[in-house]
Amino acid sequence: VVAAYNQWRSTCNPPRSPARNAAHEWRDNAARWRWYERAEAWDKHCLEQAAAAVESRRIEILTSGYALKHERVRSLDDLADLLKDDLADPEKRWLNDVKGIGQGENFERIEIERFNSALIEQYRKTLDDIAAEMGERVAKHELSGSLRQQTSSVQIFIPDNGRKDRDPSPTGTTD
Fold this sequence. Notes:
Blueprint: H1 2-11, H2 24-32, H3 35-62, H4 69-88, H5 90-93, E1 94-101, E2 108-115, H6 117-133
Helix pairs in contact: 4-6
C-alpha cells in the first residue's frame, strides 16, 4: 500500500516526496477492499495464464513438425529421393578433379575423374536414418565375461509321522 501511495504522490502536481506510511484512507480502503488478497489472486491468475500458455506452446511443438515420427520419415524419404536422383546422373556420380605432378618447370596438370563416394555415403546414411526412425535397426549387445555353472543341492526331510514301516537309518539298512 505504501508503494502504491508513493507512486500516486509522485504523479501529483507538484510531485510530493515519498511518505513513510500511507495515508489513513489508503490503509482503510486497502483493508475494506481486500487489496492484498485481490493482488495475490491477480498475481496467481497471471502466473497460471503464463504457465498455461507455456504448456500450450510445448504441446504444439511436440505434436507438430519434425517432433512427429512420420514427418521426420517423410523428410528423410524426400532427401533419399533427391540423393537417388543425383546417383542416377553420371555427372554427379563422377566428379572432375585436377592433380598436379612435379614442380617448377616439370609441373604437369592432370585432369581426372573421381568417384563421388560421399554421395553414396550420404544416401546410405539417409536410408539408415529412415530405418532407425522406423525402429528397424536392432542394436547389438555383446556380453563378455565368463559364465560359471553353479550347482546346488537340496535336502528334503520327510518325517515319518509315527509310521512304523519306514526305515530310520540313512543308508536304508537296519542293524
